[in-house]
Amino acid sequence: MTAAPHLNGSDLLDFLVGRDDLTVDDIVDLPEDLRYELIDGRLVLTPNALPIHQVISQNTAFALERNCPDDFVVNVEQALLLNRRNELRPDAMVFRAEGAWRSPVLTADVLLVVEVISQSSRFTDPGDKLKRYADLGIPSYWIIDPLAPWVTFTQFLLGPDGTYQCNLQARDLVILDQPWKVTLDLPSWTRRRDRINEQARHRGQP
């Protein structure tokens, strides 16, 4: 399928939504600020994340950036090309600097993907995406869950059989040596989340 070249903006979006035969070439002209993924040829629009979701995504990226070698790049919400019918957008990602010349990034350049669970992704991130990233040979996958009573962290590493093995689950201070030394202060993230939620409740917000 080839998108009509004369369409743009909302007209192009209306033309694409509901189809199941799309490729990455069909979505190249979508607005850059639109939150979407291409999954099995379908354009999937994702709602704007809650502020605490964004805070935790950014904190994770900052923690990775702190000791990041010069030959790698840490980025948030970077488009990732799986194949012509699939383009995902992890919450954070580490990839080789030589692969930073293009977007979406190629999976061959990716060292780590991070997904922060939201209400809309609580089933796809631990299930469908876990298998997709493993099938592509991405060495490591992190899942951070801010919806649990405590913010939790799960680290998956690619095993010799090509599937992810759970290497670590934690809700306390985490100090990792992969992909390099990274410190994740999960208790402080939990406290921050709870303060934000409490202040929102006091203002009468849902």
From TrEMBL:
Residues 26-165 form the Putative restriction endonuclease domain. CDD domains: DUF820-like. This is Putative restriction endonuclease domain-containing protein. InterPro entries: Nuclease_put_TT1808, Restrct_endonuc-II-like, Uma2. It comes from Paractinoplanes toevensis. It comes from the Bacteria. Coiled coil: none annotated.
